[in-house]
Design a protein that fits this description.
Blueprint: H1 11-42
């Protein structure tokens, strides 16, 4: 990944990007837990 131009490396943008990444990870883990729970309850 190439370096961004000077002035565009905003800490707020990095914070928002990391927060959105954690949010997607949380959603993925939640869906995984839901599917595992459904699979276990059906057996």
């Amino acid at each position: 990944m190439r370096q961004l131009e000077a002035g565009s490396d905003d800490p707020a943008f990095f914070l928002i990007a990391s927060l959105s990444a954690m949010l997607y990870l949380l959603i993925a883990v939640t869906w995984l837990a839901v599917f595992i729970g459904i699979a276990k309850s059906e057996k």
